[in-house]
Every structure is written in structure tokens, then in C-alpha cells.
Specification:
It is built from twelve helices and ten strands. The protein is an alpha+beta fold. The protein folds into two domains: 77 residues; 233 residues, BirA Bifunctional Protein, domain 2. The strands form two sheets. It has a seven-stranded mixed beta sheet, with helices on both faces. Strands 2-4-3 form a three-stranded antiparallel beta sheet. A hairpin with a 2-residue loop joins strand 3 and strand 4. Helix 1 packs parallel to helix 4, helix 2 packs antiparallel against helix 4 and helix 3 packs antiparallel against helix 4. The radius of gyration is 35 Å and the shape is elongated. The two termini are 68 Å apart. Bound molecules: phenylalanine (PHE). Phenylalanine binds next to strand 9 and strand 10.
Length: 339
């Protein structure tokens, strides 16, 4: 029987056809009710138990081969059938949709580019950090709530190892290695233990900036941020600084920009205030300089930090933070022309 199957396999491989009718006859001959394959299955019943396994496999393979043969014959004949005047080979193909950068990348690159023009370098650091770089060296008192389990993701129950909650930790690493003048920004991912909603996410992106030199003043900070706001949102934008508190800056402020949607008149985006908060900033606390072996009697500096998602939300009027992480193509493709 195996020999017989081998012979049939040869016949099948060598078969060729020019028309669909020939293929149909071929199909009936092998796969039809009274066809060769059914005959083989009938004979199979009489095969001794010891050979059933191999013979069965051979028959099944043969069946596959026949089906493939029919498909390939039909596809070549099909091609010829359509190869007539109705086929316009000069028709352009379907358009290839270009990809788009993610809005967070677009905005991050833009922020980097704006500060690059002011001479800021880029620094990067680890996402898994220790308490010293994220909190202690930044003047967080030991009982500060930001160290609390509710805000910080700790790793392996060790309170000294954690996911950074801001990229200020990178600036500490720069201060450790370099003496002023320091002028750097640190873009990167940060992590906070928050419930995910339209306005909060447990992973987001920041760009923080640090400038330390002799005679750096609050006026320099304000002018730098005004320049940034104009470059980012347009020359018509106004800024306002509100007093605030951060452990690592003194004095500290939060910066608002005038609402671009209502032009300051008040709308639901700015909650009828005419202003939108975009970043935190301040003069580096002398304690932080001293912790990092920078002479605070000689040097002063400013720092600022902003959420990239927040800037992108304002720039593109995105109402729900979760859209940045879902990778829904209908959202992403809207940024095709952005850069
Ligand atoms: N590190 C602060 C935060 O994550 C932002 C900030 C940076 C504030 C620098 C002031 C100065 O919220």
C-alpha cells in the first residue's frame, strides 16, 4: 500500500493543467466520492495494526498535497484569466500611510530644542533610584508625605530602593559630578502611586531644568520661563508666577500660562480662571547645594520641572491622559503632520 501511495504522489506532483475544467476533473479523480483518496481510506481499514500509524500519516500528507496542487493550479490559471485589458498596470497602488511620532515625543523634543537654544545640555539617570537621590539630598524632611507608600513605588519592600517620583534625582546626579556653571535639563519617565484617571496616571514624563552659576537670580528664572512659554505656545502667551512650596527650592513658585482657548476670558478648560498651571519652579535651596558639595555662598541657581503630558494636553487640547498610553491608532494618527 505504501508503494501505491508513493506512485500516486508522483502522479499528483507531475500533473499539470491549462484550464479550470482540467483542474476540476483532477479534483474529482482524487478527492471525489469514488475518488482515489476515498479508495485508499477504504483499503486503510485492512492495514495491519502495526502499520496503521505510518500509512495513515502518508494518506493524510497525500491529501494535503492534492489540495495544495489544486490551489496552486487554480491560482496560476486565475492569474492568466485576469491578465487582459481590464488590468491597468499603471494604476498607482494603495497609499502607504506614514507613521507619526507619539505626541509625548513631539513635545519632549520641542522642549529639549527650546532649552537647547539657551545652552542647556541633556542629562539622564536611572528610573530605579535610592532615597538619597529622590528625596534626602533634595531636602525632603524624613516625615515628608511624598515618601509615603501612597505616592512612591518602593521596590522589594526596601524603603531605600524606589521608582523615581521626579527627575530632580538626575539633577542631583549632575551636581555630584560637576561644579557650576551647570545648565542642564533632564527629560524622563517618572512613577507615582496614583489611581489612573483622565487627570492622573501612575507613569508620566517630566522635563526638569537646573541652572547654577554665580549671580543667578529669580529674574533670570522668570525670563527663561517666559522665553520658554513664548516658544512653546506662541508670543501672545502671558505667564504668571504664584508662590508655592517645594522642599528643594526657596522661594518656590508655580507658573500659569494664559488660557489659549478662551484668550483669558474664562472657559471650561481653564475652569473660568483664564489661567492654566504648567510647571513648578524656584531658587535652589542652599541646603541642596551644600548636600551636593556646591558652595552656596558663592553660587545660586534655579530649577523648574514640568509634566510633558500636561504641556501636550494644553498644546493639543487632549482631555484625557489615558489616551497617551493606550496607543489607539485613531488618536496617534492625528499627530502625523505635527513633526
Ligand atoms: N520636582 C517637582 C515635581 O516633580 C517639580 C519642580 C522641579 C519644582 C524643580 C520646582 C523646581 O513636582
Amino acid at each position: 500500500m505504501l508503494q501505491n501511495i508513493e506512485k500516486i504522489r508522483l502522479d499528483v506532483s507531475q500533473f499539470s493543467a491549462d484550464t479550470k475544467e482540467e483542474v476540476e476533473q483532477f479534483r474529482i479523480k482524487y478527492l471525489g466520492k469514488k475518488g482515489i483518496l476515498n479508495e485508499l481510506f477504504r483499503q486503510f481499514k485492512a492495514v495491519p495494526a502495526g502499520q496503521k500509524r505510518e500509512t495513515g500519516q502518508q494518506i493524510n500528507q497525500l491529501k494535503l498535497l492534492i489540495n495544495e496542487k489544486i490551489e496552486s493550479l487554480l491560482s496560476t490559471i486565475g492569474d492568466e484569466a485576469t491578465d487582459d485589458a481590464s488590468l491597468d498596470l499603471s494604476l498607482p497602488g494603495p497609499p502607504l500611510e506614514p507613521g507619526a511620532r507619539h505626541p509625548i515625543s513631539i513635545v519632549r523634543n520641542e522642549i529639549i530644542e527650546i532649552f537647547g537654544r539657551l545652552g542647556y545640555t541633556i542629562s539622564e539617570g536611572p528610573e530605579i533610584e535610592d532615597d538619597w537621590h529622590v528625596f534626602s539630598s533634595l531636602n525632603f524632611p524624613p516625615e515628608h508625605p511624598a515618601r509615603d507608600m501612597q505616592d512612591t513605588f518602593f521596590i522589594e519592600k526596601d524603603p531605600d530602593i524606589l521608582l523615581r517620583t521626579h527627575t530632580s534625582s538626575v539633577q542631583v546626579r549632575v551636581m555630584e559630578k560637576e561644579q557650576p556653571p551647570i545648565r542642564t535639563i533632564s527629560p524622563g519617565r517618572v512613577f507615582r502611586n496614583e489611581a489612573i484617571s483622565a487627570r492622573a496616571h501612575c507613569i508620566f514624563h517630566q522635563v526638569e531644568g537646573l541652572y547654577i552659576d554665580e549671580n543667578v537670580s529669580f529674574a533670570d528664572l522668570k525670563q527663561t520661563l517666559l522665553f520658554f512659554a513664548h516658544e512653546m505656545f506662541g508670543n501672545g502667551v502671558e505667564i504668571r508666577l504664584r508662590p508655592s512650596y517645594f522642599p528643594f527650592t526657596e522661594p518656590s513658585a508655580e507658573m500659569d500660562i494664559s488660557c489659549q482657548i478662551c484668550g483669558g476670558k474664562g472657559c471650561n478648560v481653564c475652569k473660568y480662571t483664564g489661567w492654566l498651571e504648567i510647571l513648578g519652579c524656584g531658587m535652589v535651596d542652599p541646603n541642596v547645594l551644600e548636600f551636593n558639595h556646591i558652595d552656596s555662598t558663592r553660587y545660586t541657581g534655579f530649577a523648574f520641572g514640568m509634566g510633558i503630558e500636561r504641556v501636550a494636553m494644553l498644546k493639543y487640547q487632549v482631555r484625557d491622559l489615558r489616551l497617551y498610553f493606550e496607543n489607539d491608532i485613531r488618536f496617534l494618527e492625528q499627530f502625523r503632520s505635527a513633526y
